[in-house]
Design brief:
The protein is α/β, with parallel strands linked by helices. It is built from twelve helices and ten strands. It has helices at about 25-40, 50-60, 80-95, 115-125, 140-145, 165-175, 190-195, 195-205, 210-220, 230-235, 250-255, 270-280; strands at about 5, 10-15, 15-20, 40-45, 70-75, 100-105, 130-135, 155-160, 180-185, 225. Helix 1 (about 25-40) packs across helix 2 and helix 3 (about 80-95) packs across helix 4. The protein binds adenosine-2'-5'-diphosphate. Adenosine-2'-5'-diphosphate (A2P) binds near residues 227, 231 and 234. Adenosine-2'-5'-diphosphate binds near residues 184, 185, 187 and 189.
Length: about 280
């Protein structure tokens, strides 16, 4: 598995297994164990997914050494502000049953983002987190917060796929050595994308499926991908993307698919409040 060096020197496996919407108490446990068996060494969870404890248990029971698995979690909006975020970090560690996390993100960019970020910086200094980052920051949101941070985030996890390539955002992140992590890297199973003739032709040429071509394109663009699948064959197959390479001309063809728009607009009015109301993870 290819690894990427982040701007703080920490190495992250380029493909991760995401557990959004998988229930705790068994299902996440089994899914993570299966993913580790299939070769994944990077698991992406969040406090708001409410399944950190299953992730931790699966990693412990897998027999794989803790330092061979890269664990990401995220702080939820309810725990923003310095003091609450400090507690939030400890709660994630407790739920995971781990003494450190490899990467911890500010899940959403609303409320006291600066205070929460300061708590992540301090937790990093204290050895509780190896790398810190943000999520769902558009160029405008990034520019409104990050210039005030003392530490540049290592990643920004956003929606990204060939129909929404985040080119404006990448122009801001690249010079600062910040990696983009893609959620919905397959366009959330967008049938049009998976059946796109450029994608299908490349899949045929390389003997791969459409999803593998899309993920390969993203990896070759320097993006960390978190593909989702419930199908055991595809879960395994989505890791099997390191034995072929798209040519520069083919990368150009894929770049031309960009429509510049996704499903989620972090700048839409009221999004922060809506998210906070929808996900109450504690009193
Ligand atoms: P399935 O669970 O049946 O594999 P995203 O990661 O962008 O959210 O996309 C997830 C969707 O893409 C799911 O519907 C999943 O369906 C589908 N999918 C996952 N891997 C592949 C693949 N290699 N080829 C085609 N579709 C895929």
């Amino acid at each position: 598995m290819e690894r990427i060096r982040l701007n703080d020197g920490v190495e992250i496996p380029a493909v991760g297994f995401g557990v959004f919407m998988i229930p705790n108490g068994g299902e996440t446990y089994r899914a993570v164990l299966d993913a580790l068996k299939a070769g994944y060494r990077h698991i992406d969870t969040a406090a708001a997914y409410m399944n950190e404890s299953d992730v931790g248990k699966a990693v412990r029971d897998s027999g794989i050494k803790r330092d061979e698995v890269f664990i990401t979690s995220k702080l939820w909006l309810q725990d923003y502000g310095y003091d609450a975020a400090k507690k939030g970090v400890n709660t994630s560690l407790k739920n995971l049953g781990m003494d450190y996390m490899d990467l911890y993100l500010l899940h959403q960019p609303y409320g006291d983002v600066e205070g929460a970020w300061k708590a992540l910086e301090d937790a990093k200094k204290a050895g509780k987190i190896r790398s810190i980052g943000v999520s769902n920051m558009t160029p405008k949101i990034w520019n409104s917060f990050v210039p005030r941070f003392s530490t540049i985030p290592s990643v920004n996890q956003v929606e990204c796929n060939p129909y929404f390539q985040q080119s404006e955002l990448r122009k801001i992140l690249d010079p600062q050595g910040v990696r983009l992590e893609a959620w919905y890297p397959l366009g959330h199973g967008d049938k049009g994308l998976l059946a796109n003739e450029t994608v299908v032709a490349l899949a045929k040429k390389y003997g791969k499926n459409a999803g593998q071509v899309i993920l390969r394109f993203e990896i070759q663009s320097g993006i960390i991908v978190l593909p989702k699948s419930t199908n055991p064959e595809r879960i395994k197959g989505n890791l099997d993307i390191f034995d072929f390479e798209l040519s520069e001309g083919e990368m150009e063809q894929m770049r031309a698919l960009d429509k510049g728009k996704g499903t989620h607009d972090p700048e839409a009015p009221g999004v922060g409040e809506m998210l906070l109301n929808n996900y109450r993870i504690h009193e």
